[in-house]
Amino acid sequence: MLYTLLDRSNDLLSGDVAKVEKILAVHDSCSTRYHKELHESVRSLLHKLGCHVEELPLNKDKTTCCGYGGLMMFADKEMAEKVISKRVGESQADYLVYCAMCRDNFAGQGKGTYHLLDLIFGEGDGTYGNTTSPDFSTRHENRARLKRSLLEKLWSLKIEKEEKSMNLRFSQDVTKVMEKRNILVEDVEAVMENMDLTGQKMLNPETGIYLTYFKPAAVTYWVEFNIIFEGYDILNVYSHRLEIES
């Protein structure tokens, strides 16, 4: 396990690593439930960082889910939100996690949440963004960026990133809707590119708002938009898996 290897390193936490002298409640990921050595390594690292560890009522081999296990966020989002809310309410202290999805789920509900790697390798005390969560598209792009970086730095493979020339404007409200409906920015880009190519769109004469759709695979995406200077103002986005027969 990564954290066990880090804990065994004699000089990893020496030098410029900041000490975080505060109380942090440790949330153990449910997938690590039976990895006792990992649990101990995480807590050992925290002590080396100067943290005061608080144990949650359900921890280690009896830990509970962060709301992502079994893809709960996709199968039953309302249930997942309840699971997250219950877990973050078990302590007034900020949480310490060592799983990216646990961090994002807790931080997404405004809970102060630190990722252990941020404390070890981050700047300052690792608080950057600890109460914010990346949206669905940002998380997707971060993974793609990491993949490109690893391919170039470790395998010396030059990966050309496709540049998007389309100017799309998303309001904060629309971004929240896309997060809730699991729709990526690149999904919307595909819809608008198809509209530019085919000219397929409908205009509501009463509102002046356009509507277009595209079905790249099993899912049909719909986009409501206005035409702005050299681009489009995205007003609403939704999708379905319904088959429409003519």
Q: How would you describe this protein?
A:
The protein is elongated. The chain is built from nine helices and nine strands. The relative contact order is 0.09. The chain is an alpha/beta fold and 246 residues long.
What's the helix and strand layout?
Layout: H1 2-8, E1 23-26, H2 36-48, E2 52-55, H3 72-75, H4 77-88, E3 94-97, H5 100-107, E4 113-115, H6 116-121, H7 136-154, E5 168-170, H8 172-180, H9 185-198, E6 202-204, E7 209-214, E8 220-228, E9 231-240
Radius of gyration: 22 Å
Number of strands: 9
What are the secondary-structure elements, in order, as H or E? HEHEHHEHEHHEHHEEEE
Secondary structure category: alpha/beta
- List the uncertain runs: none
What is the average per-residue confidence, as pLDDT, rounded to a whole number? 87
Number of helices: 9
Q: What does the main sheet amount to?
A: 5 strands, mixed
Helix content: 25-40%
Main sheet strand line-up: 5-9-8-7-6
Quick synopsis:
With 246 residues, the chain is of the alpha/beta class. It is built from nine helices and nine strands.
Task: List its salient traits.
5-stranded mixed beta sheet, 246 residues, elongated, 9 strands, 9 helices, alpha/beta
